[in-house]
Design a protein that fits this description.
- Helix content is 30%, strand content 24%.
- The protein has 10 helices and 12 strands.
- A 5-stranded parallel beta sheet has the order 4-3-5-6-7, with helices on both faces. A 5-stranded mixed beta sheet has the order 9-10-8-11-12.
- Strand 5, helix 4 and strand 6 form a beta-alpha-beta unit.
- It is globular and about 50 Å long.
- About 2% of the residues have low confidence.
């Protein structure tokens, strides 16, 4: 308590805890491609309240430093193994093979990892056990897919089937391991061609840079071995098109989204925006959606 010199009244003293601003969540970005750079630019501009860019890891450290300077950030560029002590949360937007080395240190220390290489989770399911044991969290944004809330809600009941049909421009599928291993040449296509039919788990292995959306769908619903997928290469397309068909005891629904590719033709522009929306939701006083 303290006295008011003018009135003589006794006023409550504001505690240091009440006066101190909430600490910012320190974000590490692993990978500074189209997605990571968009996130870094937004954080550097202070456009994501409650978060600050703490560190970045990238294959080409010199190029990453230059990119950060261009977006107005002085965050350090460090090797992957040095990220965890510098941040509270990591956003993984790197090649899928790097997921374990990025995520494991954060999860072991009870921290959060936002994962975009969702297909790699199927090959590294031990990360989920690590998160469970330590109190860490793996967060998968909606990414380039719509309707995950509806699928997750339907999964609380009984889902009978989930089917996804993906159509992509040819340039977005070039170099996929499945195409190379099976001798499928799509470079000269003049008409749409179905290049894959199988499960989400099989698609994640054969198209690791393309079909994270299918794995996210499967994890929200009935799993990667029951979620069926078709992939079409279409030379007439300029956008990635995903159609989902779900049959459940609570509802039957279908959804379609056409995503504008980013600078990386394998990634939709909306994917980076989905990460921003995911982070914003974490700090928001009002959360809309399940």
């Amino acid at each position: 308590m303290r006295g008011n010199a003018r009135t003589g009244a006794v006023e409550p003293m504001q505690s240091a805890v009440e006066a101190a601003p909430a600490p910012l969540c320190r974000v590490a970005i692993a990978g500074l491609g189209a997605i990571g750079l968009k996130l870094a630019r937004t954080l550097a501009a202070g456009a994501l309240p409650g978060f600050t860019l703490a560190a970045v890891s990238a294959r080409d450290e010199a190029a990453a430093r230059q990119r950060l300077r261009e977006v107005g950030s002085e965050a350090p560029v460090v090797p992957i193994e040095e990220l965890e002590p510098l941040a509270d949360l990591a956003v993984e937007c790197a090649p899928a093979a790097l997921l374990p080395s990025i995520a494991d240190p954060f999860l072991r220390n009870g921290k959060t990892v936002v994962v975009l290489s969702v297909g790699a989770l199927l090959r590294n399911e031990g990360l989920i056990e690590t998160a469970r044991a330590s109190g860490g969290r793996i967060v998968v944004p909606s990414g380039a897919l719509l309707g995950l809330d509806a699928v997750a809600a339907a999964a609380e009941g009984q889902i009978r089937s989930v089917r996804m049909i993906t159509r992509k421009p040819v340039r977005g599928l070039l170099g996929a391991p499945y195409l190379i291993e099976n001798g499928i040449d799509i470079a000269g296509l003049t008409a749409p061609r179905r290049v894959f039919e199988g499960t989400a788990r099989e698609a994640a292995a054969g198209f690791p840079a393309n079909l994270n959306v299918a794995v996210a769908l499967s994890l929200a619903g009935i799993g990667p071995d029951r979620t069926r997928l078709e992939i079409w290469a279409d030379p007439a397309l300029e956008r990635n098109v995903h159609r989902i068909e779900v049959d459940a005891d609570s509802a039957a629904f279908s959804m379609q989204i056409e995503n504008v590719p980013s600078e990386n033709p394998k990634t939709g522009r909306i994917t980076a925006l989905s990460v921003l929306a995911c982070l914003r939701k974490m700090a928001a006083p009002l959360q809309v959606g399940t």
